[in-house]
Amino acid sequence: MGHTRLGTIPKSRKWSEVVAELARFGSDVAAEQRTLQAGIATIARRAIEAAGGALKGAADDIGLRYTFYLLTQITLSAREEDWVEALRKNGIDLSGSSSVFDLTVELQAAVDRRISASSHPSDVSEMAQSAAGEAIAALASSEAVTMFGSGRDELQRAIRSLSTKKGFSDLGQVFFGRFIARLLNFYLSRVTASQLGAGEFRQVGEISSFNQALQAHCEQSARIVRDFCGEWYSKTEFIQGIDLENASAFVAVALKKLRSELQRQEAEA
Fold first, then answer.
1. What pLDDT digit, counting tens, does each position of 189-204 carry?
2. Is a pLDDT exceeding 80 seen at residue 238?
């Protein structure tokens, strides 16, 4: 209750084109890899065009903006000697045995508290929180477990590796890639479900393969913002410090770059 929902797929010519492209993709699931990549690129482009309004609106979502801001603060906090206190200032509380999973849960809770103070939760916010948690887990999980065990100290070292220019570049690419994939799949899942059985997707496994291919394509496409993330992070923190305002402005520009990249890549797939 109280969520701001993105709604159902509009009945428009653009979405009809997406449905048609999905049908073609489903019929080519056994085709060679290059053909499948081209199909995913086409679907992603058409979905971005059809859901253009939703993407533009996402840049204004407080949940998305605050989630990205918290990613910057979590990584910067890992540089501090008293990491625990630095995190607490951002509403994140870790115990001595906290894991990567505990950190992602705390991040999501901190975002929820921030949103509830001024507005309602949204689908975009939930996507952003999930994308942030997945990005941290994907890049820090292996380093947070050492031969000496795992816990808050090991976790801090793992997150500190993401606080460098290169580390935050990697984090930004995975975060934005996972977020865009979730946003597109929010709409496309309704189409793929309608295609199951009666349409071209004959088995649930084919939909799963499609979702994995879409996520991989979005993460690869997010390379367009990879260096941009690291350079902005390093330069902004050094010159003026990162706050919610300049982090929000960055998110808006990053989404524009990624949207343009997804629209451009079809011809190269």
1. 766 555 444 445 445 4
2. yes
Q: Which two tokens stand for residue 152?
A: 């808050």
Say whether pLDDT at 34 is over 50: no
User: Range of 196's domain?
Assistant: 13-59+181-268
Tell whether 130 and 209 lie within a shared domain: no
pLDDT at position 260 is 86
| Same domain assignment for residues 154 and 66 | yes
Residue 130 is assigned to a structural domain of this protein: yes
52 pLDDT band, cuts 50/70/90, is: low
- Same domain (yes/no): 120, 150: yes
Q: Which two tokens stand for residue 1?
A: 């209750």
Residue at a domain's end among 160, 191, 223? 160
Q: Burial-class residue 205 by CB neighbours within 10 Å (0-12, 13-18, 19+).
A: exposed
Of 148-152, 178-182, 183-187, 244-248, which one has max mean pLDDT? 244-248
Instruction: From 103, 159, 107, 100, select the one nearest 128 (Cα to Cα).
Output: 107
- Domain annotation covers residue 69: yes
Chain centre distance of CA 10:
24
Give DSSP secondary structure letters for the chain. ---B---SPP-SHHHHHHHHHHHHHHHTTTS-HHHHHHHHHHHHHHHHHHTHHHHHHHTT-HHHHHHHHHHHHHHHHTTSSSHHHHHHTTT----TT--HHHHHHHHHHHHHHHHHTTS--BHHHHHHHHHHHHHHHHHHTTTTEETTEESHHHHHHHHHTTSSHHHHHHHHHHHHHHHHHHHHHHHHHHHHHHHBTTSSB-SHHHHHHHHHHHHHHHHHHGGGGHHHHHHHHHHHHHHT---HHHHHHHHHHHHHHHHHHHHHGGGG-
